[in-house]
Amino acid sequence: MLFNKRKNKSVLHIYSVENGDIHEINLPKSLDDILDLQDYLNAHLPNFDITGFHKENNEQLSAGGKFEKAIHDCLKKNEYEVIAGIKPAAVGGQIDIDLAIRWKNNVAIAEVKLAGGEAPKKALDQLAQAGEQQYLGTYTKRIYIGAKRLPNNDLRELAREKEIHVIEIPGYSGKEYLEREEEKLLLQRIKEILH
Prior knowledge:
Blueprint: E1 2-6, E2 9-13, E3 15-18, E4 21-24, E5 29-30, H1 37-44, E6 48-50, H2 63-77, E7 81-88, E8 97-103, E9 106-113, H3 119-130, E10 141-146, H4 153-161, E11 164-168, H5 180-194
């Protein structure tokens, strides 16, 4: 058996060996949905906590938490599996993943940020670290989702170098949901990345 993952497709090839010759038994079989997000995370991060959206000290959603919820809910209602707030225990709080997203056998992690300033740079660094082989592996896509445009070309270049996809939603209104045009933009970009 050979499991092949290319171009966001998971394919199983089954072979037999007869008299030293290798023969493919039947046509390759597409394996569209063999794992869920919890399985994937457990395979890479055997000890982690799920904390949900970012909150203020009074346990109300923070402004950033509302943006995370808006992204989460949009994806979830469009048949993506999404988990919010993943904290791997083994790294001593160095990694805090805002969202994990799955479509079939394709997985992404996302940092969801409202602000400009240092927040985008920190988010890109966090995605680069979390997506390394020793954490979530080389097949995990990395996505930066910002309510503001990245402030400069250096950050765009850093994202490109680290293979981080950038989705900008500058029309976000601060609510716990996205407007129709923002949803359309988000879903189009996520589809390009995960399908």
